[in-house]
Design goal:
alpha+beta, two-stranded antiparallel sheet
């Protein structure tokens, strides 16, 4: 992963929506210093990747997970 575990925070909130169905909301936060290190912080004049790209297996796993998960809360 391009981030250390201490640089990423996430949370999940669940509840019944106005339509009576359960819904879930994810909150993902990444420390600004970690974004700056990768050239992705919005305060920078250009947003270019400055670190190494993750290995091929990481990309393949992300694509596999994105295609196979269409669950709705």
């Amino acid at each position: 992963m391009p981030f250390e575990s201490s640089e990423v925070y996430w949370g999940l909130a669940c509840g019944i929506g106005p339509d009576g169905h359960w819904h879930g909301w994810f909150d993902v936060r990444i420390q600004a210093a970690a974004l700056r290190r990768l050239g992705l912080h919005p305060d920078q004049p250009t947003a270019t990747v400055t670190g190494p790209t993750p290995p091929g297996w990481w990309h393949a796993a992300a694509e596999r997970n994105a295609q196979g998960n269409s669950n709705h809360f």
